[in-house]
Structure formats: C-alpha cells, structure tokens
Amino acid sequence: MTLIIPFGSFFIVMVLSISLRIPQASGAGTVVKTLFVDLNGGGDFKCIQAAINSVPDNNKIWTRIHVAAGVYREKVMIPQSKEYILLEGEGSQHTSIEWGDYANDPKNDTTATSATFFSLADNFVAKYIAFKNTYNGGTKTAQALAALVSGDKSSFYNCSFTSIQDTLSDAFGRHYYLGCHIEGAFDFIFGNGQTIFQECTIWTVSGPTSPGYVTAQGRSTPLAHGGFVFKSCKLDGVTKTYLGRAWRGYARVIFYETYMSDIVVPLGWDAWFNKGHENLITFAESGCTGEGSNTAGRVPWEKTLTAAELKYFTDITYIDNEGWLAAQPI
Predict the structure, then answer these.
(1) 166 annotated active-site
(2) Where are the domains of the chain?
(3) What mean pLDDT is reported for the chain?
(4) How far apart, in whole angstroms, are the C-alpha atoms of residue 47 and residue 42?
(5) How far is CA 67 from CA 37, 131, 159, in A?
(6) What confidence tens digit (pLDDT) does each residue in 208-225 have?
(7) Can you tell me the distance from the alpha carbon of 269 to that of 245, in angstroms, rounded to the nearest whole number?
(8) Can 105 be counted among the known catalytic residues?
(9) Which residue in 240, 245, 147, 114 sits closest to 187, CA to CA?
(10) Of 1, 134, 187, 323, whose CB has the highest number of CB atoms within 10 Å?
(11) pLDDT score recorded for residue 138
(12) Which range in 13-17, 102-106, 269-273 is most confidently predicted, on average pLDDT?
C-alpha cells in the first residue's frame, strides 16, 4: 500500500447528538462565520470547494460551512492553510460528497490522490455528512479512498465513509470519530493516526475475495504515538474479515468493549509482511462481546494489555491531554 500525501494545491433529518457522549465544555469554540452551500442555488455557493476556497489562508476563526441536503459530485480538499473549518451536512443519509477516482486509473492517481475528500488542515470538524468513493471495480477492485485525514486535532461526528478498498486513510495526527459509519472490505481503515473511534459502526462489504481486513495500521517505530482504538463500537457486515493486519512493523490496534458479530475469523489478526517480528506488534482486545469476540482461536501473539495500559489507550487523554476537543464548536 503506497501512501503519498498531497501537500500543495490539489488540484436529516438532523441527527441528535445528545444520545452520544460528545465531550462538552463551557469553553467550547464559537462559530464566528457561517457559509451556506446549496446545489439548488439557495446558499452562498453551489459547490463545497468554492466555499472552502473563500476561507482566508491562515484563518484563525471557526467558520461553519453548512451544506444543504444533496449529492455533491466533486473532489473536496481542506488545504493545510485553512484551519478552523466546521463542515456540516444535514445528515449522512441526506448530504454526501461523492467521486470515483482510484489508484492507477488513466489519470495516474495514487492511492492517496484517489480520495474523494482530503482534510489536511489542523483544527477541523465534520458533522452529519457522508464521504463516498463510488468506484466499483467488481473483480478488479482497486484502492479507492473515500477520505484522507492528515491534519492534527480533527474530529468527525455522525459521518459516514463508504468504499471497498482503503476507505478511510487516517494518515497522521490526533483524531476522534464519534457515532460514525465506516464500511469497506480491504484495509478499509488504514494509516498512522493517533485515533479513537467511539460508538462507531464498522461494516464489511463484499469484495473480490474473502476474508478481508478491517485495519492496516502503519505505526513504524517503537516511540511513535500512532494507534487505532475502537471503543464501544459495533463490527458487523456481510463478509468475513480479520480485525487487521500489520502494515508497518509496530502496528497498534485495540478493540475495547466492542460488539463483534460472527464475521470475524477465529485467528483475528495477520502479521502480513512482519512475520517473525510479531512481538513488536500491538494487536489487542478487551471486554468485547458477540460471537466474533471469542479469542480462543486467536493468533498466539495477540497482546494482553494491563489495566493501566487499557486505561491509557481508551481514555480520551490518549488523543487529547490539552482540551482541544472541548475547544471545538461541536
């Protein structure tokens, strides 16, 4: 899997959040400006990228971009220079961003540049919106990202991410996903983010072969902070799957108090190219339920974390020990 991050120019029914444990604080960030996007011309812009482009470089005020219901067929990028954007739809079943690029297509896209949505800036929030890669290669499924997230201090609430292979590139930075729906077949959550997925639905779809892989985590050194933590999530779908395989030698993935249906294969994990060095990999489960959570047949090198280690990785301070989540306008 090749990951090339583009850093230059590139080119509801409203879901109630009170049922989810979203961090709240009296000092939460305040939206200073709101821009409206409407395909039918009822807003300030008809396309999302135009609204983003209107935000000044080096922006320091929270700017909401509210996107009316509709299917927005465009590639969308939040460049590094445009921080403090809140991208808000009207429900992931109603507002979607869709495109169909894939790796090694006639335009010479790479895995990363195939993404429908790019979030490269720090301090970003998305709510109630869907990100879809519509490429469907049948028996020739290729890497086709729905989203690539490489900015620090980024959060997603009640969003959905849809593709088959490499759906969500959680590339770099500290990230939080709450109440999101993420679906795919192969390595469909991958990268080296330092990330908590909480109360999310992880859903497998049909691919050209089975079983697939939920995660391909890319932690590459022993001191790197990256790791994926799935907390109080639901893992289900239509295709058998491994929980993950080690994209890099120090891969770290933890499933905590998560429901797993019988789609999980007994071995659970794959060392991939790191066979013989499994002791360096941190793949762990704790407090999970459902038929797929039976660890009797798991690989012998699956880690058992101590109570202190579990607390460290599952507490929100793993990604936020400074209060950045509470400072966002969620």
Answers:
(1) yes
(2) 70-318
(3) 91
(4) 11
(5) 5, 13, 13
(6) 789 999 999 999 999 999
(7) 6
(8) no
(9) 245
(10) 187
(11) 64
(12) 269-273
Cα–Cα distance, 164 to 134 (Å, whole number): 9
Class (C level, CATH) for 70-318: mainly beta
Tokens read off for 241:
């799957």
Count of residues for the chain? 330
Catalytic member of 109, 187, 270, 320: 187
- Give the C-alpha separation, 215 to 253, whole Å: 8
- Among the listed residues 101, 152, 166, 170, the single catalytic one is 166
- Residue whose C-alpha is closest to residue 62's, from 121, 148, 120: 121
What is the amino acid identity at position 85? Answer: I
Is residue 29 very low, low, confident or very high in pLDDT (cuts 50, 70, 90)? confident
